[in-house]
Amino acid sequence: MVLKYYYDLLSQPSRAVYIFLKMNKIPFEPAVVNLGGGEHLTEEFREKHSKFQKVPFIHHDDFRLTESVAIVRYLAREYHVKEHWYPQEIRAQARVDEYLEWNHLNVRAGCARYFFDKLMGPMMTGKQPSDEQVKKNQKAMEKTLTDFERIFLSSEAPFITGTEISFADLQAACEIEQPRLAGYEPRDHFSKIKTWLENVKSECQPYYDEAHKPLEAWLKKIQKKAAKL
Ligand SMILES: N[C@@H](CCC(=O)N[C@@H](CS)C(=O)NCC(=O)O)C(=O)O
Fold first, then answer.
1. pLDDT tens digits for 137-179?
2. Domains of the chain, with CATH numbers?
3. Ligand 1 proximity of 11 Cβ (cutoff 6 Å)
4. Where is the GST N-terminal domain (predicted)?
5. For ligand 1, is residue 178 a contact (CB within 6 Å)?
6. What is the pTM (predicted TM-score) of this model?
7. Residues 2-27, buried b or exposed e (16+ Cβ, 10 A)?
8. Interface ipTM
């Protein structure tokens, strides 16, 4: 069976699933979807590829699946995946799920809103957000990052659910890297997040850096442009 993975590495959940696939040596055919080019917004794309018109998604022969968390749960059942990435043991699995459920409306919502309103929105519309809006979004993001540190990084364990890395760490790390593009480096404000990100990054080399290459390139471009002003 052929597994085709559709993604854009500038998308946080796309990077998380990409690193998961690579770390678990799951063979896949890569299919890059250029979100910036808008190729996902056509009716044809919706019918042929993804009903939500978002990335990531997979085609496993004739089976199509969207949503990063659903994709990883499916892959963990279909392929040989090391237990710690997405455990089969009920309670260990529930611990990973606990973070994954919390992630959407907290870390993802906070970091993505800040990134979108400050960078993506203005790029798409040419309209800058007010200082008040930026401050409000920053405050909401910092609240969620404070909660993340307090609730999920409270022990001396290197990863969210303990001594071994899981998909929860990938999902969180890829979201927390995103606001850097809009000028906010979480590592400068949250020391536990900084240490934990180093753990995730070093555990997932060379794929963590490979997945974040387009983000780093974009960041350099933004910084170069800002230096010229
Ligand atoms: N909950 C989804 C989120 C998918 C999502 O929002 N993807 C964004 C990129 S991060 C996207 O494709 N956006 C394109 C659009 O909205 O036009 C998941 O975890 O897979």
1. 999 999 999 999 999 998 999 999 999 999 999 999 999 999 9
2. 3-78 (3.40.30.10), 90-228 (1.20.1050.10)
3. yes
4. 1-83
5. no
6. 0.97
7. ebebbbbbbbbbbbbbbbbbbbbebe
8. 0.99
